[in-house]
Amino acid sequence: MIKGKVKIDRKTKNLVKRLKPDDIPVILHEDIDEVAAYSLLEKKVKIVVNCAKSFTGRFPALGAKILLSHDVTIIDDLGEDIFNQIKEGDLLEIKEDEIYINGRYLCQAKYLRKEEFERYYQKSFKEMENLLEDFIENTLEYAKKEKSFILGQFEMPEIQTKIAGRHVLVVTRGSSFKKDIKAIKNYIMEVKPVIIAVDGAADALLEERIKPHIIIGDMDSVSEESLLRCDEIIVHSYPNGYAPGLERIKTLGLNAKVIACPGTSEDVALLLAYEKGAELIVSVGSHSSMLDFLEKGRKGMSSTFLVRLKIGSKLVDARGVSKLYTEKVSLKYIGILLLSALIPILAILMVTPPFQYFFYLIQLKLRVILR
Fold this sequence. Notes:
This protein has helices at residues 12-15, 34-42, 63-69, 80-85, 114-145, 147-150, 177-183, 185-191, 201-207, 224-229, 244-251, 265-275, 290-295, 302-311, 321-324, 331-350, 353-370, and strands at residues 2-9, 24-27, 47-50, 73-75, 91-95, 98-101, 104-108, 167-171, 194-198, 214-217, 232-237, 257-260, 280-284, 315-317. By secondary structure, it is α/β, with parallel strands linked by helices. The protein has three domains: 2-118, Alpha-Beta Barrel (Aconitase, domain 4); 147-324, Rossmann fold (3-Layer(aba) Sandwich); 331-370. The protein has a seven-stranded mixed β-sheet with strand order 4-3-2-1-5-6-7. Strands 12-11-10-9-8-13-14 form a seven-stranded parallel β-sheet, sandwiched between helices. Helix 1 (12-15) links the parallel strand 1 (2-9) and strand 2. Residues 156-224 form the 6-hydroxymethylpterin diphosphokinase MptE-like domain. The chain crosses the membrane at residues 333-362. Residues 319-369 form the SteA-like C-terminal domain. Keywords: ATP-binding, Kinase, Membrane, Nucleotide-binding, Transferase, Transmembrane, Transmembrane helix.
């Protein structure tokens, strides 16, 4: 039997902030993405109750695969009606194939089994061909509508942070972004780039004791601590000027500038760095593949394609750099290090009178033996 208190939210990224190891997360997350999966694993969960389909088979979403490979039990596809019957703090019990809430029978448990999942996962790669065609068409269609975005036909706000002639690090909550931050920490300490965090990526930077200079986004996943500690806040609004995140900033008594334009907040951050004269733009955790955008529920990547086309000469993509090279300590290097440490020690001993007498006795002993 599994038993625990419920933590429930329609947005997994919000739920994990309140999650403790003994809690049972209840989510409504279709096609769980990689970032969500790893954020749940960081909280050491043993079970996830998903009222949506963790894996639909439309494309090879990685979230469910990651959770199952770490032996996390997934109860799947219970339906939105069941989700609406569960409240934060409820006592949830799972007895074999039955789920109980506060001692009351709720529904049957549907387990997502590893073997069943693998069959669907392999089939999903075949579906990618059809999706790719639709994705390309959507990208080209929206590129025509969003070309004003890349041509700079929107107002870029004035900022206090000096970017011209400096390196700019743009951090987004993407695949392996936390490991990548650690991997380039020496670069951050030595070069001291301007750091732009896209929404919740600011929290990961603070965990590494790195303060972002600018936070850009719709402000739905970044913590109050990050907002209070950064130098500047830029709210990304809809093209019509509606900025739901601005109300939160005002509630905290903070000031913010607003950028009204299409595209993602990551695109805006990259374009801001470019337009303000950055010498080099380093991107961590970027979303740049079809799978990234399908996991985010986006049908195309026109704005991202156009932005990268414009800033390509200055852009260095550090996504996955932590996987590129894992430093290993060689026995040869250890031997050289030990030898280099022993040489000065032996030199000192050779000029010390007691040790000189000791070495003289050894020399005499060897002469006797060799006769």
